[in-house]
Amino acid sequence: MLLFKTMFSRSLPSQPQDRLLSAYDYDLPQELIAQNPAVPRDSARLLVVDATHHSHHRFFELPQLLQPGDLLVMNNTKVIPARLYGRKSSGAFIEVLLLEERQHNQWLALVKPGKRLPPGATIVFEGSASYPLNATVLATDAATGGRLLQFDVPQGMSLIQVLDKYGQVPLPPYITDSQAAGEQYQTVYAEQPGAVAAPTAGLHFTPELLTHLQNKGINTAFVTLHVGVGTFRPVEVEDITTHKMHGEWVEVSADTVAQIQETQAQGGRVIAVGTTVVRSLEGAAVSCGQLQPFCGKTNLFIYPGYQWRVVEGLITNFHLPKSSLLMLVSALIGRQRLLALYQEAIAHRYRFYSFGDAVLLLPVDFSTIERKDRK
């Protein structure tokens, strides 16, 4: 079993239309964009999809929907208070969204308004700390249109250590009327600070549900991918094969690799909790030639026709039209089927996007699908 999974990749058949951006569009009623999370977290609805069927459940039923010996791989990144407000020396108001740390206390950020912030400009931030926080613009980043900022913080400290005094947790722009508390936009297993957005598939887990999964013999492992602009950057080219993903920092530990290999050797299934975990595991496997411990950046772009190396199943939320995330999920179950499932979810009034409901995509027998396709 292990030999097959590590040496042979799997891929669904793809069609020429799968490469077109316009083929990933769908209409969503505005009222189905979730503005607040489910309470409790695991009361969210769950659309369960296998090779040929789908059914409707609640997330707390997950232990009954998986098998003993399955491995859930989760992203333990933690969202930082990445939205900052400040002023230029002239008094003009400035909004900053941190994206990623490039060097110590040096961050790539999106800045509004950015046109009036050339290299050398200074921003003074407003916060509750007794010490000031300033940043100097070092350069403009052509890839994102952002700015490279050097932050001046007290000696011996990092920006992340003081962000809770100055920043706010940034919610996605489609969440415009939310009463959610900051901790509701963190997973219960968040540990490693650095993300500017939550790995939202993990928001549905509670400590009690994790205990129930463990008692059922369903194991967990962790990776870290600090969610940044790469996850949300829009695809703007009709031929999606020419889209370039922005790199995001990933760590896949030796312990997690060992857990995956043990799961495969014993016939268990590797199920990613979220598209960020997919990018972490598959990115590590692509970078190394096979799954190995990995620490670095991945700019892997997954769309139909992708040769799967590690991930077999997926828990994910419902994604925006024409997004790279929609393309990733299409690579696992097929674009046409996925869009049909989205129409089913809309008809059943599922809640969409970051605070919305979830989908469980159970492992597909690729060889069977390929045999049927050849017929």
From TrEMBL:
Q: Which GO terms describe its cellular component?
A: cytoplasm
Q: Which gene encodes it?
A: queA
Task: Relate the assembly described in the record.
Answer: Monomer.
Q: Which pathway does this polypeptide act in?
A: tRNA modification; tRNA-queuosine biosynthesis
Q: What is this protein called?
A: S-adenosylmethionine:tRNA ribosyltransferase-isomerase
Q: Which domain of life is it from?
A: Bacteria
Q: Where in the cell is it found?
A: Cytoplasm
Q: What is its EC number?
A: 2.4.99.17
PANTHER family found in the cross-reference section: S-ADENOSYLMETHIONINE:TRNA RIBOSYLTRANSFERASE-ISOMERASE
Please report which protein family the annotation says this sequence is part of: Belongs to the QueA family.
Alphabetically list the UniProt keywords. Cytoplasm, Isomerase, Queuosine biosynthesis, S-adenosyl-L-methionine, Transferase
